[in-house]
Inverse folding.
């Protein structure tokens, strides 16, 4: 696919990992993992969320040390790298979130902290010399902007070029691109893929991590697939294709279903319906969704596909740019979270510690907060009413804490999440939106939270669960809606549930449905 | 009363005892009456500031507001001969409106409290000086307002009426801050505005209300200060009073990050500040050192409080570790 193939299979690999293992308390993040990267080779690295990609990156960057295994860089074997060794041997990272100073210009960013200085006691920056140094780097990444341009004025792809130029400036021999295209529009993505080909032509190795499999198909010489922390397989250039990658990423049959219990009643009428709403992240993509009573609708999709933004708009925290929302068929104007709460639409947010609970308040104060007037007489808080509600919820949800007066910040993640749920359950929800409700929560508390969600649905509540955990989505949901780049790419009924189908929809492809019709929009 | 407040009270008593030992006039009726009057005036002002600080905000314009509103009040009743109750109401409403505007700029237009109120500080001082043509606002010879003077500068049962007003205001505001739904919202917003919003609290309205309360209490204290000095030169009247108010709140245990502090604390903070002022006078310390003494004491106070917090956190952690080791998991 590339005009010149500069990969030489017989040359010594620049980097090789052998039987690398890394565990965190309770989790094996990476196990028996081996791979090698040759000079001028482009490796596509794919895997689901949580497959071990981040751990691998941390090990290569020298941020964490593997428990065992060998890392050989440029012929020298190590038990683990330090950050200095990683940088020193020419490994450079370009992260999804860019680390640029938007207020400085391109040249200043590329040589930040390493500026050439003029002679003399003032140690002024030698601007002329700086430009001379930057020009060839920009040329190598094919930049169409000047070294004086402020970074804030560049497009995302151009900013990524700056990052890559920065990587080249430290004489990088391996550039690791971590989901660089996930926030780029189509045309910009093209430019970035060209840059990757350019690097390859200069003999620089690239590890390209992406959820967008068609991009991998286009630039990778080899694909390495991670699954559950192990190497699921390697695909040579002639075997790289979409279906094969998906097969390797899923690999196995579903584990025993994480139980939320089956629905005991048929889904009811539509409770909350959003029609052609637009969010700030994808302002040009209208999205519609219907939540039915007594149903758990799973909302799957890749990180950054617009799920959280959709939830935030439905809850009124984020502004709705266009479109309409109806609750039980009546138009609803949610301009703030307070409006949503007043209408029985509740959100269990993604970031529990920052937005879910107030860590400094007691359990009781957290639970009563959204409904304080109901716990007050003549605007004065009634401690008795507050404690009664809290005790009741603590018992119902099995919140493990010495007392309801305990500071919420001292609880475990699972119990904090139960406090978030408790404050809403005490208020008769009509619509419950949960954003990654079990992230960072241990197995036991997870099962309890699944049970609570099912109990809510059984009581007639419309439940929307956003989750990146594939097994959770499939095990808990009654239907699954999948988002892809800001829009619902399809809705799966129970019969069509499979990791493959969810993944296909998540990357914008057609799922394999039992009935030929229906499903994808 | 929290341990923090108790510590502050003990400090006040100890300083009082030391000053009395050196100069017994500290406890004379006239000195106590004078000091309690000043405590009242600054106390009312500081309570207002405390309501803003609890939200994580700050109100720097109160000193200038005291000059502007005081000038206007005296001008209304002495020159324009408005009925004083009417003038009183107008000034209070003005304070409320200014507080509302500050709150609105901060919550709706997302300006920083420091910036908004710093501009207020400059604007109101300038307007006050312009209004009097850089002159002095005061009463003509023989002008009398017996009722108003009794209420502001008079005494009942040996207590300055201003001090009685402070006690009434403090009790009402204590209930508002520590017992009401609104007070709980203030603390929640100060601790974590984002989480409060996610709990369905209309955080913007609550913050605006805090600035309105601050505006009203500042206007009230402006009237008291005006009647206390009886003549106002707007170039210097009320200068640095915003810092007295902030200092009282900080001494009283308020965190400038918001979400922390008690009403008793801010009152005790005011008392300690006035006691220090008094100490400088009574002990014959050069009055030019006034600010230096205040600054030093505040610094020491905050330092002790901070170290005490660190110590307690460490002790709590050791305690928690011990419990875990003993086999009681945190779960």
């Amino acid at each position: 696919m590339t005009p010149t193939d500069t990969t030489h299979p017989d040359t010594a690999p620049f980097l090789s990992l052998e039987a690398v293992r890394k565990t965190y308390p309770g989790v094996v993040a990476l196990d028996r993992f081996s791979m090698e990267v040759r000079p001028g080779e482009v490796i596509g690295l794919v895997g689901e969320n949580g497959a071990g990609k981040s751990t691998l990156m941390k090990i290569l960057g020298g941020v964490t040390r593997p428990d065992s295994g060998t890392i050989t860089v440029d012929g020298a074997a190590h038990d683990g790298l330090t950050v200095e060794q990683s940088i020193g041997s020419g490994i450079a990272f370009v992260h999804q979130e860019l680390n640029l100073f938007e207020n400085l210009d391109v040249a200043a960013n590329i040589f930040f902290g390493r500026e050439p200085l003029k002679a003399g006691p003032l140690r002024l920056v030698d601007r002329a010399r700086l430009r001379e140094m930057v020009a060839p780097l920009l040329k190598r990444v094919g930049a169409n902007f000047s070294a004086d341009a402020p970074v804030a004025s560049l497009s995302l792809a151009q900013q990524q070029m700056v990052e890559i130029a920065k990587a080249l400036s430290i004489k990088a021999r391996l550039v690791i691109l971590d989901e660089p295209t996930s926030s780029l529009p189509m045309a910009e993505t093209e430019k970035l893929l060209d840059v990757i080909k350019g690097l390859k032509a200069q003999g620089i190795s690239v590890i390209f991590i992406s959820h967008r499999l068609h991009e991998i198909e286009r630039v990778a010489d080899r694909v390495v697939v991670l699954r559950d922390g192990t190497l699921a397989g390697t695909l040579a250039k002639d075997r790289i294709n979409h279906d094969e990658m998906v097969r390797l990423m899923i690999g196995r049959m579903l584990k025993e279903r994480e139980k939320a219990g089956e629905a005991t009643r048929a889904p009811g009428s539509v409770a909350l319906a959003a029609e052609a709403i637009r969010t700030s992240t994808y302002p040009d993509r209208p999205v519609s969704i219907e939540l039915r009573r007594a149903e758990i609708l799973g909302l799957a999709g890749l990180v950054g596909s617009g799920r959280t933004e959709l939830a935030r708009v439905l809850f009124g925290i984020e502004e709705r740019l266009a479109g309409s929302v109806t609750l039980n068929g009546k138009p609803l104007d949610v301009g703030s979270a307070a409006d949503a709460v007043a209408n029985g639409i509740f959100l269990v947010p993604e970031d529990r510690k920052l937005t879910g609970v107030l860590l400094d308040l007691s359990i009781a104060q957290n639970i009563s907060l959204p409904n304080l007037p109901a716990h007050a007489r003549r605007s004065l808080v009634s401690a008795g009413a507050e404690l009664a509600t809290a005790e009741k919820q603590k018992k119902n949800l099995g919140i493990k804490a010495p007392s309801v007066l305990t500071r919420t910040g001292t609880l475990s993640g699972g119990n904090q999440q139960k406090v978030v749920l408790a404050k809403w359950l005490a208020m008769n929800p009509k619509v419950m939106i949960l954003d990654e409700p079990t992230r960072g929560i241990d197995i036991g508390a997870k099962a309890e939270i699944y049970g609570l969600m099912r109990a809510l649905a059984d009581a007639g509540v419309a439940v929307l669960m956003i989750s990146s955990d594939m097994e959770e989505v499939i095990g808990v949901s009654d239907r699954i809606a999948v988002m892809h780049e800001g829009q619902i790419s399809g809705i799966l009924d129970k019969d069509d549930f499979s990791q493959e189908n969810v993944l296909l929809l998540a990357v914008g492809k057609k799922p394999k449905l039992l009935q030929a019709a229906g499903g994808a929009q | 009363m929290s341990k923090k407040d108790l510590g502050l009270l003990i400090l006040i008593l100890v300083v009082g005892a030391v000053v009395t030992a050196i100069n017994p006039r500290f406890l004379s009726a006239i000195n106590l009456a004078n000091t309690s009057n000043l405590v009242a005036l600054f106390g009312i002002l500081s309570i207002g500031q405390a309501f803003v600080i609890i939200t994580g905000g700050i109100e720097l314009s109160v000193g200038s507001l005291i000059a502007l509103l005081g000038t206007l009040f005296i001008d209304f009743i002495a020159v324009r001969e408005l009925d004083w109750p009417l003038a009183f109401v107008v000034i209070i409403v003005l304070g409320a409106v200014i507080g509302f505007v500050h709150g609105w700029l901060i919550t709706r237009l997302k300006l920083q409290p420091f910036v908004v109120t710093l501009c207020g500080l400059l604007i109101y001082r300038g307007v006050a000086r312009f209004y009097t043509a850089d002159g002095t606002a005061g009463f003509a010879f023989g002008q009398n307002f017996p009722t108003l003077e009794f209420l502001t500068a008079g005494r009942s049962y040996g207590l300055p009426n201003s001090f009685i007003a402070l006690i009434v205001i403090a009790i009402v505001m204590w209930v508002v801050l520590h017992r009401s739904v609104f007070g709980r919202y203030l603390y929640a917003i100060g601790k974590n505005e984002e989480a409060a919003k996610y709990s369905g609290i209309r955080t913007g309205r609550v913050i605006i209300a805090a600035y309105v309360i601050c505006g009203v209490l500042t206007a009230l204290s402006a009237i008291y200060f005006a009647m206390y000095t009886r003549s106002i030169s707007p170039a210097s009247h009320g200068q640095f009073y915003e810092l007295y108010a902030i200092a009282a709140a900080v001494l009283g245990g308020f965190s400038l990050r918001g979400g922390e502090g008690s009403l008793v604390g801010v009152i005790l903070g005011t008392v300690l500040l006035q006691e220090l002022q008094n100490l400088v006078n009574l002990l014959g310390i050069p009055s030019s050192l006034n600010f230096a003494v205040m600054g030093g004491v505040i610094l020491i106070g905050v330092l002790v409080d901070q170290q005490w917090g660190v110590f307690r956190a460490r002790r709590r952690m050791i305690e928690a570790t011990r419990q875990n080791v003993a086999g009681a998991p945190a779960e």
